[in-house]
Design a protein that fits this description.
Rossmann fold, 8-stranded mixed beta sheet, 6-stranded parallel beta sheet
């Protein structure tokens, strides 16, 4: 039976260009899941912060999906770390914009949205599912940064929702070990868009490594640049290699020459400028082409609940060199679909890159296995079917509880 689904993705606008600030895996997850549920006959409204004066308040996508942007008294970009102060206004404006009694299911994304979901659940008793996308406890383990308010909020959300979606077994185990009396947890991975496919996979010459993501410390960008510099100036290889970096601001095309990078990034590429290409953020079709002709895609994050870039790269037939953290430990199979390294270990990352540069035949075999693995495990149609089944189960349980009472 078709459902009216409400999703809340506070800072993650599903239609924002990927790679820009606060536009990454969560945005794409929400968009692709909404479209896949749309294909199953459901309608999906996604509430998100109205972070740009250039975008309309209502915007449709797919056949039955739309984004509803909420100003919350502050139309324009707001750092997600500051967005908690907007939540009361965000909730009030949402209630003014839509009648929430019309929704059959509520699905929140990230802890800030989860706080809104907890309030709405109390008022409307709508079946509520939550996906964290990242966890404070994982971030603390990886970076040492403790966020008491977020930790407390996630305890509330992950024990109050009717069901929680973990995107990997590692995430499920972490929730169970850190949350007292957690809600039922369903492990459902993230899917990959059909644009990410193997193609011809003719490796670029010179051999090229690719990084795609936000140019932030926690994404491991500085670890990668240090490793690439070490590789370049060592005797680990006898063939020229390049590094391609995708992400950052839309204006950061050929950013080294335009001096558009932060001072820290400019310092990090000093001495290897002629071997590093900054391409800025790119649409998915162009991103897929770059993955297809890469020797390997590097995902050196300090923590990842899932690791969408790793899945997309594997779907394109590229092996992935990834930090063994969070979901990356589950979705990059060491020595089968790629190589795993310790997070922040510059020498180990340089060594892994050097190995594949010397053995492109091994990289090709890893890439072929990676493409098969991605096709079997990260199909959005199958994933939407699992999520839909979860919605049905939660809705049935809620209805049964209502009748029993």
């Amino acid at each position: 039976m078709p459902k009216a689904i409400c999703m809340i993705s506070d800072h993650g606008d599903p239609l924002a260009p990927l790679g820009t600030s606060q536009a990454g895996g969560q945005n794409n997850y929400v968009k692709q899941l909404a479209l896949a549920l749309d294909a199953r006959g459901h309608s999906v409204d996604v509430f998100t912060h109205w972070n740009s004066a250039e975008t309309p308040q209502y915007e449709t996508f797919g056949n039955r999906c739309r984004v509803i942007r909420v100003a919350a008294g502050n139309r324009g970009f707001v750092e997600k770390s500051d967005m908690i102060h907007l939540l009361p206004s965000f909730l009030n404006e949402m209630l003014q914009l839509q009648d929430f009694s019309r929704y059959d299911v509520l699905h929140t994304h990230y802890w800030l949205s989860g706080l809104l979901g907890e309030k709405l659940k109390k008022t409307y008793s709508t079946p509520w599912i939550h996906t964290s996308h990242s966890l404070a406890v994982a971030k603390e383990q990886a970076t040492g940064l403790r966020e008491p308010r977020r930790l407390k909020a996630e305890q509330l959300i992950l024990s109050s929702a009717d069901a929680v979606i973990a995107t990997s077994l590692t995430e499920k185990a972490l929730i169970q070990s850190s949350v007292r009396r957690s809600s039922p947890i369903a492990v459902i991975p993230i899917g990959v868009d059909s644009v990410f496919s193997p193609g011809s996979h003719s490796m670029r010459r010179p051999l090229t490594f690719t990084f795609a993501g936000r140019l932030e410390e926690t994404k491991g960008i500085f670890t990668l640049l240090r490793a690439f510099k070490l590789l370049t100036y060592s005797d680990l290889l006898d063939t020229p290699v390049r590094l391609r970096i995708i992400g950052g601001d839309e204006t950061q095309v050929d950013a080294v020459n335009r001096q558009a990078l932060s001072p820290r990034l400019q310092e990090a590429v000093r001495g290897i400028e002629d071997r590093v290409d900054f391409l800025g953020c790119l649409p998915q079709d162009k991103l897929a082409v770059h993955f297809q002709d890469s020797l390997a895609v590097i995902v050196p994050s300090y923590y990842e609940s899932f690791g969408m870039v790793a899945v997309e790269a594997q779907a394109c037939g590229s092996p992935v060199i990834a930090s063994k953290v969070g979901g990356l430990g589950d979705i990059v199979l060491d020595k089968k679909t790629g190589l795993q390294t310790a997070p922040g270990n510059v020498k180990e990352l340089a060594s892994s890159m050097g190995f594949l540069a010397k053995r492109p035949d091994v990289a090709r075999q890893l890439g072929r296995t990676a493409a098969q693995f991605a096709k079997q495990n990260f199909n959005w149609s199958r994933i939407a079917k699992k999520v839909d089944k979860l919605y049905e189960g939660v809705a049935y349980a809620a209805q049964d509880t209502f009748v029993s009472n």
